[in-house]
Specification:
Length: 269
Amino acid sequence: MRILIHKDYDSLSKWVAHYIAYKIKARNPAPDKPFVLGLPTGSSPIGTYRELIRLHQAGKVSFRNVVTFNMDEYVGLPEGHPESYHYFMQENFFGHIDIPKENINIPDGNAPDLEKECELYEEKIEKAGGIDLFLGGIGVDGHLAFNEPGSSMTSKTRIKTLTLDTRIANARFFYNDVSKVPSTALTVGLGTIMSAREVLIIINGYKKARALHHMVELGVNHMWTGSMLQLHRHGIIACDDEATMELRVGTVKYFKDIEQQALDNLPEL
Ligand code: GLP
């Protein structure tokens, strides 16, 4: 696993955006061979989305031949609800780039048959040729997408009940009222994420420090689902200094040293 420890959130976001743009361009995607990108919501990727929009507006990257699959969506929130992930993606990313509408995939938390919707979602990913790069964030309890502690390590897209911890963490978006946070969501599974050809996880801020410690310095464990990244062939964590507060000094020094060159240079576009 690669771990890139950036000095702050801005430099981390810039690096991640440039890396994604670089990967898209390197593939030279076309309608019959699109670049398939997995995407998260939450506050962690906002800086990356901002920078990708800026790169797009500067003519450095196009999303015309990019197909996206979002990680998750709440069950039962109307798509137009300001806290739905459909709305979030439109506002923070899709509404500002040249991606065709039909290339965007987000689980439908209002589908009449939710289990069928999950099955279809997996089929769509497969039909698209699998995910080239899955971008993600983690919850404070180390969850990936909505794969809460105890999730099956081989899980696929399914309905998950959210833990009280996650609902409390997300209540800040629902007028601080936990009762307004949906109690279930559709989420890609850990198996879905692990099947991606590359996985890039953004971890920033002190509140994620404990989760980063579990992901990096302790063993693979279903109670910290992000730790599954240790088993991925091409897993990258892009974090900031604050998030490393619970790591050993030696771990931080080691990764800063071996990634020095990558940290000092943005992927070239
Ligand atoms: C939710 C999402 C996750 C996200 C997490 C952290 O639980 N399902 O995909 O990583 O929140 O969100 P934030 O980036 O706002 O800390």
